[in-house]
Amino acid sequence: MGKKYRLLALDMDGTTLDSEKRFPKETAEAVRELTARGIYVVVATGRGLAELSDYRQEISCTSYAIAISGGLVYDFRQGKPLFLQPLPLAASLEILAAGEAEHAMVHFLTVRESVCRTADIENMKDFHMGVYQDMYRRVCCPEDDLAGYARGHADEIVKINLYHRSTESRERSLRRLAPLGLVNVFSEVTGLETSPRGITKARGLEVLCGQLGIGLEEVVAVGDAPNDMEILKLAGMPVAMGNAAEEVKEICRDVVGDNDHNGVLEAIRRYF
Predict the structure, then answer these.
(1) Can you tell me the distance from the alpha carbon of 68 to that of 73, in angstroms, rounded to the nearest whole number?
(2) For the segment 82-119, what is each residue's pLDDT rounded down to a tens digit?
């Protein structure tokens, strides 16, 4: 079984990282061993490059990332995107308006920047995102004029996250944005991720596997949340974490331990 798979795609939050957002030492060592054997290990995450900066050491041996929910496929060795799909400016402005209508935290992701309002960073508990506050303080570019930022970076915004104060508020945003025909996926407790039409982690995996000459049946993907479902459906071996949502477990062929008991390491030992 270990000889069949050539690429491991790992979600970060809720999967590789534990509840305290730590990258387990044992997992980092296993990733290094896999890459030394010629296995591709790829981070497949909703995070952008800025939000991966805390884990430079742990992922230093990896060559590629499927980032920003598939809107960016990045080549670490060459320091440039292999694939990039930004949101149209009109859509970015409408998503921003939807967030403002709900008094939500609006978060822009570009290739290299993570951008949101200063006040929102300091009040992330209100949006059920307190566990990320220290990271946002370190890596975010504070910007209070988000409309101005969107206009000045019209070809760079790849995804917009709206973090709401309640799930009811999130539902209202989803209904408002549905007519735009974009990809809207729930994340975190009250988060709504909005990406360009057709963009998911699965699309990023297709692009990368095409570049590397790897068949999708040769991929093991591990995830936990609704924004992982498309890539899990596409991978030859879809694996759900023990803490995964039930709808995620239902589409997977295997379930491993949860993210606080190193389920990723279990998957690595089982399939590689």
Answers:
(1) 9
(2) 999 999 999 999 999 999 999 999 999 999 999 999 99
Name which of 27, 15, 19, 35 is nearest 252 in CA terms: 15
Domains, the chain, in order of start with CATH, read 7-84+199-271 (3.40.50.1000), 89-195 (3.30.1240.10)
Give the mean pLDDT of 179-203: 96
Whether the Cβ atoms of residue 165 and residue 104 lie closer than 8 Å to each other: yes
pTM to 2 decimal places: 0.91
Q: Can you list the positions of beta strands (E) in 125-172?
A: 141-142, 159-163
CB neighbour burial string for 7-34, b if at least 16 within 10 angstroms, e if fewer = bbbbbbbbbbbbeeeebbeebbebbbeb
3-state secondary structure of 157: coil
Instruction: Specify the 3-state DSSP secondary structure of 66.
Output: strand
Burial of 130 (0-12, 13-18, 19+ CB in 10 A): exposed
Residue with tokens 């790849």: 158
Residue 241 and residue 247: Cα distance in Å, rounded? 12
